[in-house]
């Protein structure tokens, strides 16, 4: 444990540690701040063994296990255990994307998505598959990729017998039961159960055609239209009478 009087110049009115980056009026605040430098995480949650630097963060994490959902979306019936999760969810309604990439025109609703996106520019690949030679730029990708080797499907639907390898697939599937459509078009009254369906629909308003044919200059708004067009070049006739 640190000796605050000796090592950091303790003073009941002012506490400042040797890096001189911040000052504090209370000893407890200095202890919390120092953990941002030492990365000490003394608080461990017994159910999942995750560790935290602050007791308040540990208590907040407990809600993800207890099922208590204090934060209700004001535009739909979804509720969340964490306020930050509700904030991120609200952006699916408002379309707000406050995190802007400095190297291209893309923007994101979550900072974590921007960090992942930036690896496309830096080409950083920090995660290696243990069963093959593939490497990935995002921490979650190796776990997802490993399931292509193992065939593991850990996410089970509670309303039917279907199971999925990714949680996002399960969430998308559950909407076939609930008929929930959280993705609302801002230019019409149409709503969709999947975000990619909303993206495709928005192209009917914007006229955007981001899909380029690799064999000519034509562009398309739908992947299905691009596939149909490519068959003109290849002569493929998949539908036989």
From TrEMBL:
Cellular component, GO, one term: nucleus
BP GO terms, sorted: regulation of DNA-templated transcription
Pfam family, one: zf-C2H2
Gene Ontology molecular-function annotations: DNA binding; zinc ion binding
Key words, A-Z: DNA-binding, Metal-binding, Nucleus, Repeat, Zinc, Zinc-finger
Record's subcellular location: Nucleus
Domain C2H2-type: 22-42, 43-70, 71-98, 99-126, 127-154, 155-182, 183-210, 211-238
InterPro entries: Znf_C2H2-type, Znf_C2H2_sf, Znf_C2H2_type
Keyword Methyltransferase among UniProt keywords: no
Record family assignment: Belongs to the krueppel C2H2-type zinc-finger protein family.
Entry protein name: C2H2-type domain-containing protein
Organismal lineage: Eukaryota, Metazoa, Ecdysozoa, Arthropoda, Crustacea
